[in-house]
Specification:
alpha+beta, two-stranded antiparallel ribbon, 3-stranded antiparallel β-sheet, binds zinc ion, elongated
């Protein structure tokens, strides 16, 4: 269940904006829900998008410069709007079919 932070109405599904008050969720705070490494980051990104939730991958700035793809420097932070964080974490922890 998702609760709009602006009007406190409940949403069954993620939306770009609140159907009750038109609050745009991506303008609110974003939170890092998981840290990942390539190529798993892209799999998680597409999975989160399949839930209809906006997602951002935050790459450590040094990694592309140094060409490092393995190890702590290649860490990718996966962020979603805070309003969807618990919703996404529930879905990610649930069993899902393999690609
Ligand atoms: Zn609202």
């Amino acid at each position: 269940m998702i609760t709009c932070p602006a009007c406190n109405e409940k949403l069954d599904q993620p939306e770009i904006s609140c159907p009750h008050c038109s609050y745009i969720f991506t303008t609110g705070p974003w939170v890092v829900i998981r840290k990942s490494y390539p190529p798993e980051d892209r799999i998680i990104e597409s999975l989160i998008r399949s839930f209809n939730v906006p997602v951002r991958l935050i790459h450590e700035s040094i990694a592309p410069v140094a060409g490092i793809t393995i190890g702590p420097l290649a860490e990718v932070k996966i962020a979603v709007p805070q309003v969807f964080a618990s919703y996404v974490l529930d879905l990610l922890s649930a069993p899902h079919p393999k690609e």
